[in-house]
Amino acid sequence: MQIGLVGLQYTGKTTLFNTIAGKETDISAGLKEEASIEVVKVPDERLDKLTEIFNPKKQVNATIEVFDFPGLRMSDDGKMNITNAFLNSVKDNDAIFYVVRQFKNDAVPHPKNEINPLKDIQYLDEEFLLYDLDFLERRIEKLKRDVMKIKDDKLKKELPLIEKCLKHAEEEKPLRTLYLDENERKLLSGYQLITLKPLAIAINLDEDSIGEEEKIINEVKENLIDKEILVIPFFAKIENELASLSEEDRMTFMEDYGIKESALSKILRTAYNILGLNSFFTVGEDECRAWTIKENFTAQQAAGVIHTDFFNKFIRAEVVHYEDFIKHGSFSKCKDEGVWRLEGKEYLVEDGDIMNIRHS
Fold first, then answer.
1. CA distance 102 to 285
2. Is the CB of residue 181 less than 8 Å from the CB of residue 201?
């Protein structure tokens, strides 16, 4: 799973990335020409607790790839420098986070000389929509030629769908706001349309905004086309300073600042949310591990994430939910209380299930 951080220069995007990645911030990194990539462990207090109980040889957290794309800056002709290479790289991500700034700092000028998160969001939407429009127009031209030459039902179904998408995009609406059924989404999945991808917005605030996060978020959301977009606040400067502290000192300072959740936790929790992901656990003496699956995965599909043989030779899944296990303290007591159970291959795995796969 990949998420991409995109935004204009001097938004604190790279500082956010380094905080998430647990790296020190290099001022020159904001001027880089290529994306930085980091595989980040997904923190999960439930997994930490299970490791504490089972004391395995190792703990294996779920991971996510985070891409920090170069900040967009003004070119010599006064326009923002957005290349095809940049756009092609962004479209390969599973979800996108716009990083915009609300903080004011005369030493760190905004590329457009105006601190306005809504205008930055609108600008990014417009650029990505232009990319999608160009693709859709070219795809329609090709489909019309191919339909004349090739008798293919799939092409005949695709043409009206692409035309439907083009009409929506021409109305200056991102494709994620267009209703598409499961079959339509499947047809479009190979094209990596940018404005169809799950999106969240991260707003970089300064210390003066502590305690006003909800007000700022609501003001932004009220003016967005897509009211369902998740908007999350973060304090890049503060969190970067806290990153060098021990866990205990960090928690103390976060409380002092009134910050309830770290940027890392916010970003990854939001990514799971917008991508429709869940976690289940396997536990034992060798390891305690978190596995990432799509919502509504069956027990057999979840087994296949562990190993293909587990999918092909699936018999049953032993299942108990994390909350039930913690409440009762052991598998034997969970059995006595009737919360430990055997489930078949069609069982829909819930976030937080602890599973043991029986297979032939």
1. 48
2. no
Q: Name 131's bridge partners.
A: none
For residue 153, give both structure tokens.
């039902």
Listed in sequence order, the residues at least 6 apart from 38 whose beta carbon sits closer than 8 Å to its beta carbon are: 17, 20, 21, 23, 65, 66, 68
String of DSSP letters for 288-350:
EEEEEEETT-BHHHHHHHH-HHHHHTEEEEEEEEHHHHHHH-SHHHHHHTT--EEE-TT-BPP
Q: What is the mean pLDDT of residues 336-359?
A: 96
3-state secondary structure of 52: helix
Domains in the chain: boundaries:
2-274, 296-359
Residue with the two structure tokens 């049953």? 316
Contact at 8 Å (CB) between 280 and 349?
yes
Q: Which residues, including other chains, have CB under 8 Å from residue 108's CB and lie 6 or more apart?
A: 10
Answer whether 39's CB lies under 8 Å from 63's CB. Answer: yes
Residue type, 134: D
Chain segment 257-316, per-residue pLDDT in tens: 777 777 778 888 899 999 999 999 999 999 999 999 999 999 999 999 999 999 999 999
Q: Nearest Cα to 9, choosing from 68, 89, 87, 70?
A: 70
Cα–Cα distance between 317 and 343 in angstroms, integer? Answer: 5
Based on DSSP, count helices (H) and strands (E) in the chain, helices before strands: 14, 12
What CATH fold (topology level) applies to the domain 2-274? Rossmann fold (3.40.50)
226-241 tens-digit pLDDT = 888 999 998 888 877 7
pLDDT-derived band at 167, boundaries 50, 70, 90 = very high
The answer to whether 226 and 128 have CB atoms below 8 angstroms apart is: no
* pTM of the predicted model over 0.90: no
Greater model confidence, 37 or 226: 37
Say which CATH topology domain 296-359 has. Answer: Ubiquitin-like (UB roll) (3.10.20)
Which of 132, 11, 1 shows the shortest CA–CA distance to 70?
11
